[in-house]
Amino acid sequence: MIKKNAYKNTELQIVIEDHKMLVRKIAASYIAKFSYILTLEDLVQSGMIGLIEAVRSYDSDKGASFATYASIRIKGSIIDELRRCDWSPRSLSQQTRQVKEAINIIEHRKGSPALATEVAKELNLSLEEYFKLIERINTKKIYQEDYSSIDLFQSTKETSTSSQIEAVQRNELSKIMAEHICKLADRERKVLLMYYKEGLSFKEISSILDLSESRISQIHSHSVVKLKSNITNKYDNFSWN
User: 89-234 domain in CATH 1.20.140?
Assistant: First the structure.
């Protein structure tokens, strides 16, 4: 058992070697959403810094297991690096508006759902640049305490204190969302339903649709931006919590 300041350099190296896979596992859990910022190896390196700090500061007398303590420090180190590399809320908000405007222009012009290639062209971006942008837009809540991504269906969830009027409003919002999801392209609709309703991971969806996991992430990001744009454009009093 590791105790604070109770190890030698050789012991430190052994502990680090024993927990390298923990670092890689945690880093891998972030890469699908944040590959537009850093590579997996970049995240692993940041996580290793957190692991080393954990080894140096861990005190078993405080109760928590080393793995639990190390996981917290590893995640914190990775989040700090992501924040350092990509924290520009003002420019991101402006870019979000530009994407929504582009989607509205295209769909008004052609009378059908906007394709990712069309939105990218409207914004004078390559398709790869567009996908990176919408990944940033859909993960802009990374810096919240729970580090969770945007919950697409958050506004339809009930709470124990909801009034009957609020329940009716949520039911209407559910109908609105269902209506707009049905208007998405077949593949986009399938990805959203499998991810949010069936609770499948991008990896599981990629196997079902025979597409790469990164491609599923791109379809998801584009679909979410388009869905939110269409709903907020049509219903002025609709807001995403």
Answer: yes
Q: How far apart are CA 30 and CA 38, in angstroms?
A: 10
CB distance 43 to 27 below 8 Å: yes
Would you state the CATH architecture of domain 9-85? Orthogonal Bundle (1.10)
Q: For residue 25, how far is the Cα from the chain centroid?
A: 17
Measured between alpha carbons, how far is 115 from 236 in angstroms, rounded to an integer?
A: 24
CA R_g for the chain: 21
| Token pair for 234 | 């049509």
Per-residue pLDDT of the chain in tens (241 residues, 90 and over written 9): 444 444 556 677 888 888 999 999 999 888 766 766 678 888 899 999 999 998 888 887 777 788 888 999 999 999 888 877 765 555 677 788 888 889 889 988 988 888 889 999 999 989 888 888 887 776 654 433 333 333 444 444 444 444 555 555 556 666 677 777 887 888 888 998 888 778 888 888 999 999 988 889 888 888 888 887 777 665 544 444 4
CB atoms within 10 A of CB 83: 12
What residues does each domain of the chain span?
Answer: 9-85, 89-234
